[in-house]
Amino acid sequence: MTETLVLVAERRTESGKGSARKLRASGFVPAVVYGHNRETQSLAVAHVELDKVLHRIARGSTVFDLTVDGQTVQALIREIQRHPTKKTVTHLDFYEIHAGESITLDVPITLEGSPEGVRNAGGVLEQFLRALEIEVLPRDIPEHVVVDVTNLGIGRSLHVSDITVPNAKVLSDPHSTICTVVPPRVEEEPVPELAEEEAAEPELIRKAREGEEESEEGEAAGE
């Protein structure tokens, strides 16, 4: 079960890039909330309050109590936009949910254990799928899905079909590969370069056939 956090937001009436810049300069982050047949509502969240909770959540799978103008709804963070160089949050999307209705979301996959093929054969564990799409009630949303890889030998893989999530329906393609243990990588030895004399085309030397010798001698005698 995920931890439910509380975040307070303010209703935002102005929109546009200029308004968003002023909002950020005053210590707030522009945001919107939508979902559950509600119209998209523009919000502003204090940057200080946001920093207190962001490091404690998994985006898209942590339920918030989002309070706006004294009214509280449950919500998830659907999207976080960040500045390309400063990495500060520039915009947030909240998605309203209801406790009794299933929702579809992606949950991070965490690999646990040291594979047999890595421990005993020098193999390499490669992970291909990092999130699992599931349908679940808000109260049953897991923070992550733990996948045990301890028994994986060289050439062995785990697929979505091998995974079960309690109280949830897995929607990802069952044939998708989550991870594989591949053989150790062998570096090819460089081929030594031949010396210039060795690399040159060899001269063809052969013994003249008997007929050739007689012909040459006959030509000499005729001269």
Summary of the model, kept short:
The protein is an alpha+beta fold and 223 residues long. Helix content is 18%, strand content 39%.
Structural description of this entry:
This protein is an alpha+beta fold. The protein has five helices and 13 strands. It has helices at residues 17-25, 47-54, 116-121, 196-199, 210-222; strands at 5-11, 28-35, 38-46, 64-68, 71-82, 89-97, 103-112, 124-127, 131-136, 145-148, 157-159, 168-170, 177-182. The strands form three sheets. The protein has a six-stranded mixed β-barrel. A four-stranded mixed beta sheet has the order 10-7-9-12, with no helix packed on it. Strand 5 (71-82) and strand 6 (89-97) form a beta hairpin. It starts with a strand and ends with a helix. The model is unreliable at 213-217 (pLDDT under 50).
